[in-house]
């Protein structure tokens, strides 16, 4: 059964029966203008979809597909969703990669009726909903930015290569950032931003060299016409959007950066149509200001989600103690792009230390922050005319919480610089706006402004009067009826109502004579005579009738006026409100990380520009919490020192050996995570830590195949390893685990050996290299900055006990068979494996691979050497002295050469 409310057009839903109906003609015209979107066509209280859109949407949303009327002799497919519950349906469609054009009624149906009975309410698309342009609270994740990014390219940079720029906007918060990039790190920069939608020019999208990059994006990639990326008009477009004559006040931007920024604005204007989001002016990110972490490393280290795609078990889940959405977003942003500026890092650490030192003050601040709504997103919704009374209340409550937080922090000189700047923003919060919002809005607020009932009683006298008349109409009419009955002395006098006459007075035929006679006939006006009754009215009743009829509409109109006034007041203070929101986020992150440090026993790291990397008793932040939560005992802490060797010019490489399950991968990962935490401005899980700035972090820990791109597991491993060896420098941190294990033993050993030498001699990076190729430990005696360490284990009655301790030295075996037995392999298989291993070890003792390694030159020497090419014929010719040969000897030599040429063996 169809439960839709009747269409509010002058023309009912059934009018779609023929293609010539005005309503269907209107639909087809609007759909033709938006062919790449599902069209949400407003009809009364539903968004309806027709034809192909209906078929697609019904499958995607799991809703019923109906058919009404005919078009060109075929039944019209149709489905719809209720307007009041449209957000979940939008969310599902966007998640599936669809774009939605929202077509609203832009005219009152009463106005359409004035044009004639067949007139159709005017409609138009008011917004295109895409993954990168969401603003509704239900469609967004509170702790995650919803970035829309644009990538622009400029051919022929200073070094002859292409120059790129990325502009990213979160229209739900107003954030706007621009960053320069280059071909080699474009994928890394996009991985850091983690946009929901990426815009590129058609030509860039079609570039075969970049095709793998676009295919590899988690976000949807939207190709656009070249006009969106017109560099000639970019500066003017930006200036026009922000209402300025010049962009000089925003900072210095390159031509390609302006192009990317203008492209993202042009797309926003296209999708938002009549509305303009209140964006902050673009901020240029400093080149090299953040640690570069490529997509593979982010995945391997599980920074924001596990390898299975779940947030639980990731680093962000382990460290996030924020209590506001804005704070969670800032924490995630810092984690995704750790700073490479020691001064900025230490400013953050100072703020954290101040919070760490005063538990009572920190808790009071967190209590205030926990009650603070999301100011940035409420502001954006209001400015886009998508907000409601709750968003205005959120602005008032957020500003009030900001003022309370400022009071807790105080103005002492001991307050660190980062918090003093936040305090300055909070101090600017307009208290008068807080008071106005508090006086205007009631307690139980509706979601939508059109629902009414949100303005507090007593705020507007005319609103109170309209509400009283609307709500107390029965009591008012009853009082008037009693007064008329007493004045006319007619006990049976009644005031009634119908849709034709409205309110009227009705008396019996006999009593009517009294109302026809003076003096009552002056006051009571005859309206209608029936067989058994006569109806009258009075000027007072007529006026009351009109007032009652319009009281509800009048009350809502007054509330909408109040709403508009409050929105205007919020808009006037938009920049201040945004500053307060940013300040609260900074304070929230500082307090949250301080709480984390206190609860988990973290220490303040020393961060500087050196090549140091010394960690005492370091721990894995995620594994440690998991062990404690599951009651499996304490985490075994371990030290690491990858700082410069004796020459002081390059970092060390730790070659880590030991059995499976002993904790090698955990040890590797924990060092990378400690570096990230330190440079994002957090305390770290260690007894002490000294971190020299890491400019690039590479991690190849584990791999899976990539069937979509035709890559085996080993191929993926080699691609990731190649990226590391081609890009890592002295300030990089490299984490490599089990390189070469995906191919034949000697192939893998050779690759691992060469990779270690390359890291040592060419990259000169600080590195951790875990391996089961124990033969590689011999390199410790030949490479001065390579240190052999191992994970300690004990054997007890045939079992292996993992101690999870890193100690100097190297392992002589992998204990793989013992681990296999623990995994449940059949005993027969385990015993056979032991026998085979014994035979292989005996063979290796007779011709050990280690002696080959000892005889081979280092990578640097091998690179310089010329490879000798063996040429048997050439060697034979060189040995011939024709002048000393007899004719017989010459003939025999010729035969030998001919035999050798055919592949035979020359004597």
Could you please describe the fold and organization of this structure?
- The protein has 907 residues and is an alpha/beta fold.
- The chain is 46% helix and 17% strand.
- The strands form five sheets. It has a seven-stranded mixed β-sheet, with helices on both faces. A six-stranded mixed β-sheet has the order 3-4-2-1-5-6, with helices on both faces. Strands 11-10-7-8-9-12 form a six-stranded mixed β-sheet.
- The longest helix is centred in the middle third of the chain and has 34 residues, at 539-572.
Name the descriptors.
907 residues; alpha/beta; MutS, DNA mismatch repair protein, domain I; Nucleotidyltransferase, domain 5; MutS, DNA mismatch repair protein, Chain A, domain 3; 6 domains; elongated
Mean pLDDT: 86
CATH class bucket of the largest domain? Alpha Beta
Total E-strand runs? 27
Shape: elongated
Radius of gyration: 38 Å
Helix content: 40-55%
CATH architecture of the largest domain: 3-Layer(aba) Sandwich
Low-confidence stretches: 1-19, 862-869
CATH topology of the largest domain: Rossmann fold
Strand content: 15-25%
Figure out the total of helices: 34
Total count of domains = 6
Major beta sheet, strand line-up:
13-23-24-25-21-26-27
For the biggest sheet, the summary is: 7 strands, mixed
Give the CATH H-level superfamily of the largest domain: P-loop containing nucleotide triphosphate hydrolases
Task: Note the gap between the termini.
Answer: 99 Å
Q: Report the structural category.
A: alpha/beta
Assembly type of the chains comes to single chain
